[in-house]
Queue: 2 jobs
Job 1
Amino acid sequence: MNDTLTPDPRPRDRARTEAALVAAARDLLAESGFQNFGINAVARRAGCDKQLIYRYFGGLDGLIDAIGGELADWIVDRLATDAAPPASYRQLAERLIFGFMAALRADMLVQKIMTWEIADPSPMVMRLAQARSKALTGWMLRQRGDLAPPDGCDAAVVNAALIAAVQMMVLSASASGAFAGMPLRADADWQRLAAALGTMLDAVYGPG
Amino acid sequence: MNDTLTPDPRPRDRARTEAALVAAARDLLAESGFQNFGINAVARRAGCDKQLIYRYFGGLDGLIDAIGGELADWIVDRLATDAAPPASYRQLAERLIFGFMAALRADMLVQKIMTWEIADPSPMVMRLAQARSKALTGWMLRQRGDLAPPDGCDAAVVNAALIAAVQMMVLSASASGAFAGMPLRADADWQRLAAALGTMLDAVYGPG
DNA sequence: CCCAAATATCACCAGTTGGTGACATTTTGT
DNA sequence: ACAAAATGTCACCAACTGGTGATATTTGGG
């Protein structure tokens, strides 16, 4: 009869519960960011008791690590889609920059985590950043082959700066729809940015 | 005898108290960022009751606005120090980028506010960003004179991208001492970045 | 002088947070 | 069949948050 004594608890399936907790944490992070992100909010969202987070993940840190494992190779997964290897260093850099831009624009969760890394750098969160940048440089080394940038050009730093520009623009756009007065809402806005980045790539690496 | 009945309250000086509150908020923000930044923390730091924040500023928002007023022209104040007008567009852009980099690197408070704008965009905080970018574009227009960028180059967006790159690098450096695996701690690191930015300016605007 | 306004502080409120111990129920191993 | 372990839920804790009403004390104008 279910006599209002036990209001049907969730089925006892640890794997399922763990997955629900990870999903709840990820969705919550992607939707609202790390503000108001806490153990209570995650448990509430997952519809189960926070005690389980302690039991199964050892706390919120462990839960974050579980998320981190999922997106360690985030950038590589959606960058290495081109069949043909790049024909020039310029092309390699172009694929890196524009691929990064598209991937980041489409992934709210990673955007929020990147913001988190800037705003509240805890050891736990920094590990996510480290894994990401390691995967990214690994991809570059693998794709580079024997292509070389022009002489007298610190390509690593130039690329880092372009990545930084894209990252800042995307994060700012998600927050306010603009950066430094430049609107970043319509597709035309983004195409204008892409054109400017193309100009810079042309200028630095040559129109290859 | 001050018989433990009245533990000497602060002197009744509204102007002084308001200044103390603004200073407390600013210092707290610069030191710890907007995490744990609340009305209780500010009042505690200022050594007076939070009620005064409600009375004198109408709440935390008003206090933030008071800070915003102080640094509305932040970037202009420390950019327009050069006596001679720029001799070329390249020189203008160089002053903008490197001046911005130096100013931002030296100002922890503005760094934290910029992070705030990304991480927790509330209407109140966004007003600060708007005032800043308005002042910045105003400076550009005033300094530009009749200098013009090369044809076929969307200089406004190129400059915005370079500013974005610098901003991302500085914020990331303050948080973790690196960006995308590139260390940003020693002066040599920053000189390397400056050199790369110089390369990009050369390439886009010509070595002038 | 006296009363009103201004100033400063305190006491309390409801709500939230992270964290822990106890309990009930189900599953599993022997 | 029975005990032990695993799973899920609840109740509670101290600490903190933003917010408000009441109360002292001082200042200043009439």
Job 2
Amino acid sequence: MRRPTIADIARQAGVSKGAVSYALNGQPGVSEATRARILAIANEIGWRPNIAARALNGARAHAVGLALCRPARFLGVEPFFMELISGIEAELSARSYALLLQVVGDHEAEMGVYRRWWGEGRVDGAILVDLHLDDSRVPQVEEMGMPVVVLGHPSAAGSLVSVWADDRAAVRETVEYLVALGHRRIARVAGLPRLSHTAIRDRAFGEVCADLGLDACPIVHTDYTGEEGARATRRLLSSPERPTAIVFDNDIMAVAGLSVAQEMRLDVPADLSIVAWDDSPLCQVVRPPLTVLTRDIPAYGAHAAQRLLALIDGVEAKPLEDEAPRLTTRGSTAPPA
Amino acid sequence: MRRPTIADIARQAGVSKGAVSYALNGQPGVSEATRARILAIANEIGWRPNIAARALNGARAHAVGLALCRPARFLGVEPFFMELISGIEAELSARSYALLLQVVGDHEAEMGVYRRWWGEGRVDGAILVDLHLDDSRVPQVEEMGMPVVVLGHPSAAGSLVSVWADDRAAVRETVEYLVALGHRRIARVAGLPRLSHTAIRDRAFGEVCADLGLDACPIVHTDYTGEEGARATRRLLSSPERPTAIVFDNDIMAVAGLSVAQEMRLDVPADLSIVAWDDSPLCQVVRPPLTVLTRDIPAYGAHAAQRLLALIDGVEAKPLEDEAPRLTTRGSTAPPA
DNA sequence: GAGGGTCACTGGACCGGTTCAGCCGAGGGG
DNA sequence: CCCCTCGGCTGAACCGGTCCAGTGACCCTC
């Protein structure tokens, strides 16, 4: 049982393929009566456009690509990507666009994937995430001429359209809040130092600490895993000038840090306040529940997808500054004992 | 600057399109010298096959579909899906297949997506996850004639090829281990009751408890969220016949359960032993670290992808019983006080 | 040296749509 | 009444590949 084609519809309706094409695409060139008849037949025999045939005429592929280049074992760790994907998805599926996903090992492989997808006409554009400082992918996709939206600060995005949130403001809000509580020794457990948003947060952290006249505000870099988060926390809490508050760059490290503190017989929040970047069920489930920086990650993804679809449609898309992360206070922060 | 086509190559090489096609596809019909010349030219001008044109000739779409039908907010919660996807991916990208992903709201929408993908020639097959009891999707995809591999027990997969793990054995191993430690009152905090693997685990749990002559072995069903896991735990621990061990159906509920126990001033593992289904950084990070049932989820996904590619190639694929989850003991299980 | 077979390659149909030039008939204006 | 316009439709080219039938050259064989 072959898939019905417009030729089948044309035969049944007694018109030409061309007329059917006009009718199905809502274009002028057929009378309303004929259009209705054709649509009815198409519907009845369950016709679906063959995207391959459409794509062949230089039309859109109706798909966008996303290549994730964190190692697989880190991907599962954070809910970030899954939430991002579901946000992207929501926007795409509303427009009947599909999402092509690939997990790659490094940036070189990632570019290979984009080149292939773009070269094969499989995608109409792509979303770039996890920008590095001086990211080599940016000039490469610029040269390819593929529509691309970058998730991250415009400073690293070259001429590409970016969707970003004001991490600076979030860092400032957090530190000011902790200082208002009475903290003077605040530390930061950061993610991968080569990521551009890590650099931005690091800088903002240093600036705010200086502005507020705080003493040494140590930053420890990690790879986002619980193990490294725990190790960093242990190191910070063993130092002579033990911080009274730590801001973690993700939820899993914050929880690991909480465990370390409790292991060391420190009370959270009396002896140590903890803030996590990005909320998750995990943060709400532990005792005490964690004060977090909340972002609407699906919205973030949806906005990026929106911008990308605009670009693909040839509409000039403006960079978008998304909502800054908001501080949601819970039981893990309090004035230092 | 148009993308190069085989016609361009043919012109440059002074041969016909047909010859170029044979050369590029490694088919007989051209001399080795000509083939080499054509490949060199193709390489030089950066030719890539246009999959649309290929697909039009009834060839493969070189993509497989995965529609996830859990609500977005649950997807981020568990690392399961991300790990599964990265496993599927690993297998697919080795064969240059792409993964089409869509997050849908319910089974009806999911079938709509599959119908569209299949109808439009976008995918060559799909992977079905989270089988329900009497899953309506099974007969529907059977009727569509689309190659499909099911992740789940064959009993729910109809005539479809399935990849599954022996959850029965895992449940048995876990309960026997707890009983060997001296536990007699064991409870299970299960996932969604309409999922077929929940039913299988439920049944196995009941059988093993009966076999070992245990008293009432309560099962509480949840939606996999931390909140419901906490509520279920609270209920179980407040009952007159308080269990001394609880087996949770995922990591997030187990951690929530741990928090509840600690809130109720119960010592884990002295007063309550905890086992979680599926390991995650989360389980290793909490205090005490959780005893878990470990599965190699990426392998699980890779095997499913492998089977699916075989099916697509027209090779008859056999169902595969994957490794059963293995018990990894950590600090959360001990003899009851 | 005629017949047969193989090899390397050509030309063109074909996949399922889109799109454009052109045709026909009806209606309107002069 | 004729000419022009325009709506509604047809026929065919086209997108970039695949693949099949056919062709000509060459070699082998009896």
